Amino acid sequence: YNHFDNRVIYMDVHMSKESKILHDELIEELEKLPYIHFKAHDYKDKVFHVTISSKKIQKIYDELWEYVNNIPCD
C-alpha cells in the first residue's frame, strides 16, 4: 500500500515491461491530438495505482491506513 500524503490511500500497480511500453506509445499518439494536454502526473512517468480511499479522509486517515495495512496485498 501507499499514499499521497493524507488524502489518498492506494495500492501500487506493478506493470509488465510490455504494458509500460504500450502505455507510453498510447500517450505519444494521444499527444498528437491538439485538444489533449497531459499534466505531469498523467504523463509517462505517472504513479500507476488503484485508489482504495480518497475524498476528505484526512480526519480518519490514520485509522484507514492502519486498517488497510492489516490486509495482505501481494
TrEMBL record:
Q: Identify the Pfam families for this entry.
A: 2_5_RNA_ligase2
* Name the UniProt record assigns to this protein: Uncharacterized protein
